[in-house]
Amino acid sequence: MMNFDYVRPASVADAIAAASEKGASYLASGTNLLDLMKGGVSRPSRLVDVTRLPGLDRIERLADGSLRIGALVRNADLAHDAEFARNYPAVAEALLSGASAQLRNAATVGGNLMQRTRCAYFYDAGSACNRRWPGAGCDALKGENRLHAVLGWSEGCIATHPSDFCVPLVGLDAIVEIEGKGGRRELPLEALHRLPGETPERETALERGDLIVALRLPTEAKGFARHARYIKVRERTSYAFAVVSAAASLRIEDGRIRDARLALGGVAAKPWRAREAEQVLAGAAPDAAVYREAARAALSGAKPSGDNAFKIELAQRIVVRALTLAARGTPDRIPALPGSPFSSVAGA
Amino acid sequence: MTVELSLTRDPAHIRHGSNIGQPMTRTDGVLKVTGKARYAADNHPAGMAYAVIATSCIARGRVTALDVTAAKRHPGVIDVMTPAHKPELAEDPDAKGNPFAFRMELLQSDEVRYANQAIAVVIAETLEAATEGAALLSPRYQVEIARVGLDAGEAYAPPVVGIGNPAEVRHGDIDAGMTAATKLTDATYQTPAQYHNAMEPHAMVAVWDGDRLFIDTPSQGMGFAQMRIAGLFGIPPANIHINSPFLGGGFGSKGLISGPQVLGIMAAKLIGRPVKLVLRRSQMYGPVGHRPPTRQRIRIGTDDAGVIAVINHEARVTTSSFDDFYEPAADASHTLYASPAIRTAHEAVRVDTGTPLFMRAPGEATGSIVLESAIDEAAFACGIDPLEFRLKNYAEVEPTTGKPFSSKALRQCYARAAERFGWAGRPLQPKQMRDENGFLVGWGMGTATFPAIMFQGNARAVIRADGKGVMETGAHDMGQGAWTALAQISADSLGVDFDQLTFRSGSSDLPDAGIAGGSGHTATVGAAIHNAGAAVIAKLAELATTDERSPLFGAGNAGVVARGGRLHRRDDDARSESYAEILARAGLAEVDATGSGAADAAAQSQYAMHAHGAVFAEVKVDPELGQIRATRLVGAFAAGRIINPLMVQSQLRGGMIWGLSFALHEEAVMDHRSGRILNANLAEYHVPVNADVPPMEVITVDEHDPHVNPLGIKGVGEIGITGSAGAVANAVFHATGIRVRNFPIKIEEVVMRLG
Ligand SMILES: Cc1cc2nc3c(=O)[nH]c(=O)nc-3n(C[C@H](O)[C@H](O)[C@H](O)COP(=O)(O)OP(=O)(O)OC[C@H]3O[C@@H](n4cnc5c(N)ncnc54)[C@H](O)[C@@H]3O)c2cc1C
Ligand code: SF4
C-alpha cells in the first residue's frame, strides 16, 4: 500500500497545522485528488481530511445582502438551493453543466475551485510536465493539444482550468476566504488561479497550509439575476469538460446595458474574466453588433497554443451566444440540459 | 470445486404459449439488479492473493531494470513475477499454433512492443500492497522511437483480412466500370482507433489443484480459452475448469483469452495459492485488442441515372508489429449494392500497439460508415434521394458472388423505417431545414448488414424421471440475454413448460458451445439445443412407441409430438403420455442425448446469408456553435427469427448507440511521439451518455429463412452499429452541407466551416 498519513482534524486551526507540513494535502471529497493519487500523479505523504470540519457546510445570507458559501457545501446542494439558483442562475447552471450527478453530489465548493487541470499529459505520469515536475518541459506543447489554452498561456504550460463553476463566479467578483498560518485573508477569485508564466507549477495563490473556508458573492452579484446565462460547448451532452464556455451576466436598464460581466472557461489556466469586452458592453444597447465587438475584444489577446485555433473563433461565437441569451432573459428554471446550446433557442 | 449454475427462476417467467418468440424478461435480471449475480472478480477463494500488473510506459524498446528489491520489501508483497522469475510455460506465447492463437506477452522477454504492456506482476496480500509494489518497480527502459499512426511505415498487402478473407477481391471489370461511369465519387475517409471498454474489466481468479486448474474469468469462448491455456501450461484441456456465468460486456475483447488473464494463472502457479488479477481501466487499452484506425479511399462511379457502375473500396489499417490481425474494412462493399464491378483491397502498416482484434462488427462497422457516407455522396452527386438511390442499386443477388440471398427483407426494412421516420418529402439539398428554435436539422440514412455466421456448438439434453427437462451447454451470456433466449429454445426443444426446465450454462464443464462472437451465438447454440432436444425426444418416443403398454404404441417416431411434458399422437391428440410415465415404465432415471449446431456448408455454398436493416437518423446542429445532437433514430431490421423480442430490441438499440458513438464520439487519442493513449479512461474516452441518446425506435421485420439454420436465426448483436453510424454522419451533412470525412465528427470540423 502506498503509505500516507490520514488525519481528520476537529478544527480549522488543527487542519492548518496538519497541512502545513511538506507533502501534506487537503482532502475534500476526493473526486479529483484520489484519481490523481491512483494515477501516481499526486503522492501526498499526508491527507488532511477536511470534510468533517464544523461549520463549513453552510450557505449563509449575510446582512449586507452578500452570500457566504462554506467550502464544504456540495456542488449539487448549492445548485439545487432554490434561492441560490434564483439569485445566481448562471452559477447554478454552470454547476449543473459540470461532471455527472454522482460527482456533483460528492464534490465540494473548495474542491471545485482547487481542482487540477485535465491536461492529459499532466495525468500521464510518463510525460514531461512542468506542472508536475518544474523544468521537465511540456509535452502538450507539440502534442495532442486541440483542447488547450488560447489565452494567457506560456511556452512552459498551455493547460486550461477545467472548472465550470468558477467561470460565472469570476464574473460576479466572487471572493475567496482563506485561513492560513498567518490568519484569515481574502482574495478575489480572479486572483486565486495563476497564469503559468515561468512558474506553471504554482497553480494558485494559496500558500502551504492555506485552507479555503468559504466563497463570498458580493451584494451586487444578485443584480444580474434577470440576465444571466452559462453556455458550454462540449463533446457530449453531459459528463464532459468544456471545449469552450462563457458566462454572461448583464444588468439592463431602460434598454441599455448598465453593467456587464463576461467570463470564459476552457480557454486559459484560470477562469478568464473578459474586462475589455465588459467595457465594450457597458452603456451600449444590447444588439448583435455590440456582442460581436465584445467577443472580438474578449479574444483580442488570444493565440493558438497548438491545433486549437478553432477555439478562438468558437469562443467568440459562444460569447455572442451567451450575451444574446442573457439579454433575452434568464429562463424561469434551469434548463433540462444545463449549459447546452440546445437548451435554448439557437442563433441571434 | 464444482459449478452448478442453474438459475432460480422468477415466477414472472412462467411461459404463455410456446417460449420462442415470447418477450420474456431476463431470467438473470433479478440476480443482476440485486447484486447476486457473481461476476468473475466477485470470487474470493480461501487464501487468495492479489496480483497487479506493472505496465510499460514506453511503446517500443526494452526494460533494462526493475527494482524488484524495493517492491519485495514493501509490506504485504509476496512475490514479483518477472521475465527472470516466473513459472515455466510449456509453449512459447509467441508461437503461432493456429491463426486464433494471438501472440501475448507473458514475460517471455524484456522486450516492449506497446505501451501498457505487462512487464512484471506483483503479487501481494492486498490489492493496495500489490498496486504499490508495482509502482515501486520503477522500471528503466532502453527506448526506441515508437511507430504511431497510419503513416508510421511502409504499407504492405496483408496475407488475409478478418478471418481468412482475401485481402483483395475483384468482381467484374473495374476499368470498364470506371470508363462507363459518368459521375465519380472519390473520397478518402478516416476512422479512429477504438477500444472495447466493456464495463467489466478483464479479471482472473485462478486456483491450481495439482495439474488441475479452476478459473473464474469472463469469457466469450471457453472452449478456445481451454485449448490455449492447456497449450501454455502443458495440461489436458479437460483439466481446466472455467466458470464464466456472467460477463459485464465483451464486445469481442473477451473472445480469446488475453495475456493479462494468463498472467493471473501464472501468478497463482508461482506462489502456489489462489490469485486474483483484475485489469485497471487504463490497462484495458493495449493487451486485450482494439479496433485499429483505418484510412479508406472509396470510389463509386455511376451513370447519369444513378446506377452504380463500379465500387472500388480500398482500406489501409494498422496492425501490431508482432502479429497479424487485419480489420476487413473494405469488405463492407461486397454485399450491399449491386454493381457490375466491385473491388475491395486492403493494405496494412505495422505500429507499436497491441494487436488489434475483433471489436463490435470488425470491418463491418469501419467499412459501413465509409460505404454509407460515400453512397450518400454519390446519391447527392446524382441529385437523387438517398433512399431512392439505394433502391435503384438494390442487390437482388450477392454482388460479388452472384449467389441468391437465403432471405432478404431489406426492401421492407427501408419502407417501414422510412415511413415511421417520415422520410418522404426530405429536401435533397442540405441546410434546408430548421426547427422552431433555429437549429439546423438534417436527415440521413444508412443500410445495415451483417453476415449470418455460425460456429460449432454443442448441447446435452436430459429428460428426468420426474418429467422435467435439463439442458446443458457451455454458452456465454455477455449481457445479451443468453440465459433467457437459449432457455426459451431449450424449453421448446424439450417440449416442457419453461418452469419445468433447468438450464445450465456458463461453465466449460458443460458441452462446448463455441464462441459468443460474430453475432452467431444464438444461431449456433440454438441449433445445438434444438438438435439435442429433438434427439432426446426421439429416444423417449422410441421408448413409448415400441412399448405395447403405452397409448402411443405403434405411432412411430414421426407420429408423436412433444408438448407440455407429454408426447401426443400426431393424429389423435387425446392419446398421450407424460415423460414421467414413459420413463417410469422403462425403469429409467433419465434419458439424455447430445446435439450440435454448425453452419450447413451445402446451404452456404448455395446462398448468401446476411441480416439487413435500414437506419434513419435526425440530427440538429447549432448553426453558429457547431454543437451536434442526434435527436431521433429509427431502425428496421430483418434478422431471421426473433427468439425474444425484448432481448433483440436491446441488442439493436445498443448497436445503434454504438453507431451514434462511432459517428460523433468514440476515439482513442494517442500521443504521436510516445505511443501512449492519452484518454485511457471512461471520463475522456467518450461514449454517449444517456443525455446523448435520442428517442429511438426499433422495428423488426418478419423474415422466415429456411436456409440459415433449423431455427431460422440470423444474428442481432452487431448489425445495429452498421448503417447507424453512416446515417448519423449523413444527417450531419444534410443539416450543414459539410461533409466531414474524419470520424468521429469533431466540433472544429463543423464550426470552422459553418461560416
Ligand atoms: C470524470 C469527471 C468529470 C468531471 N467533469 C467536470 C466538469 O465537466 N466540470 C467541472 O467543473 N468539473 C468537473 N469535474 C471535476 C469536479 O468538479 C471536481 O473533481 C470536484 O469539484 C472536486 O471536488 P472534491 O471535493 O472532490 O475535491 P478533492 O478531489 O477532494 O480536492 C481537489 C483539490 O482541491 C484541494 N482542496 C479541496 N478542498 C480544499 C479547501 N477547502 N481548501 C484548499 N484546498 C482544497 C485538494 O487538496 C485537492 O488538491 C469532473 C471530475 C471527474 C472525475
Ligand atoms: S500543458 Fe501544462 S499541465 Fe499540460 S503537460 Fe504542459 S506543463 Fe503539464
UniProtKB/TrEMBL annotation, chain A:
One of its GO terms (molecular function) is oxidoreductase activity. The keyword Flavoprotein applies. Residues 1-222 form the FAD-binding PCMH-type domain. SMART domains: CO_deh_flav_C. Pfam families: CO_deh_flav_C, FAD_binding_5. Keywords: FAD, Flavoprotein. InterPro entries: CO_DH_flav_C, CO_DH_flav_C_dom_sf, Diverse_Substr_Oxidored, FAD-bd_PCMH, FAD-bd_PCMH-like_sf, FAD-bd_PCMH_sub1, FAD-bd_PCMH_sub2, Mopterin_DH_FAD-bd. PANTHER family: XANTHINE DEHYDROGENASE FAD-BINDING SUBUNIT XDHB-RELATED, XANTHINE DEHYDROGENASE SUBUNIT C-RELATED. This is Xanthine dehydrogenase YagS FAD-binding subunit. It comes from Bradyrhizobium macuxiense. The lineage of its organism: Bacteria, Pseudomonadati, Pseudomonadota, Alphaproteobacteria, Hyphomicrobiales.
Automatic annotation (TrEMBL), chain B:
It comes from the Bacteria. Pfam families: Ald_Xan_dh_C, MoCoBD_1, MoCoBD_2. Signal peptide: none annotated. One of its GO terms (molecular function) is iron ion binding. Residues 34-145 form the Aldehyde oxidase/xanthine dehydrogenase a/b hammerhead domain. Residues 1-26 are annotated as: Disordered. InterPro entries: Ald_Oxase/Xan_DH_a/b, Ald_Oxase/Xan_DH_a/b_sf, Ald_Oxase/xanthine_DH-like, AldOxase/xan_DH_MoCoBD1, AldOxase/xan_DH_MoCoBD2, AldOxase/xan_DH_Mopterin-bd_sf. This is Xanthine dehydrogenase YagR molybdenum-binding subunit. It comes from Bradyrhizobium macuxiense.
